[in-house]
Design a protein that fits this description.
152 residues; 7 helices
């Protein structure tokens, strides 16, 4: 599976494009520079499902950081930041006594410090949007190769 072989949510796609446009307005010289700046901008939320977040954060709440420490640096940083968000939410009055499963949907919609993807990944997303490989819903469209036809 290639790095560009993935689906992104429409919301994340829209938020990334807004950040990319801000980076371009901020004086980025190249598309790659704009992508690198954009992914480091604050994100409106964590782009992860509550279920996936629960599967990783639950062991962390019990003191088991082994699984998260094996992840790539960006994902590791995202989960540690999400862990901090969850620990703050657990202490709030409205969440006292609530299960982690209940809290997680609230945690993933909290603002994140960045998008937690690489500049290269955003560069690939932009390229695929321009070539039509990512459609308006943020889904990757099937790529049909125009290979050589056999002569009869």
């Amino acid at each position: 599976m290639t790095k560009t072989n993935f689906d992104i949510s429409k919301q994340m796609q829209d938020d990334l494009i807004k950040a990319y446009c801000k980076a371009c307005d901020g004086g980025a010289w190249t598309m790659q520079d704009a992508c690198n700046k954009a992914v480091k901008m604050p994100a409106p939320r964590f782009y992860i499902s509550p279920k996936q977040a629960y599967l990783v954060i639950s062991p962390m709440m019990k003191g088991d950081f082994e699984r998260v420490d094996l992840l790539n640096p960006l994902k590791r940083e995202m989960y540690y930041e999400l862990f901090d968000v969850v620990t703050r939410l657990v202490e709030k009055r409205e969440f006292i006594g609530k299960s982690l499963w209940y809290i997680m949907p609230y945690a993933v919609i909290q603002p994140a410090s960045q998008f937690f993807i690489s500049g290269h990944t955003l560069y690939c997303i932009r390229r695929d949007m321009k070539t039509g490989r990512i459609n308006d819903e943020g889904r990757q469209t099937p790529h049909i190769s125009k290979g050589r036809r056999k002569k009869k």
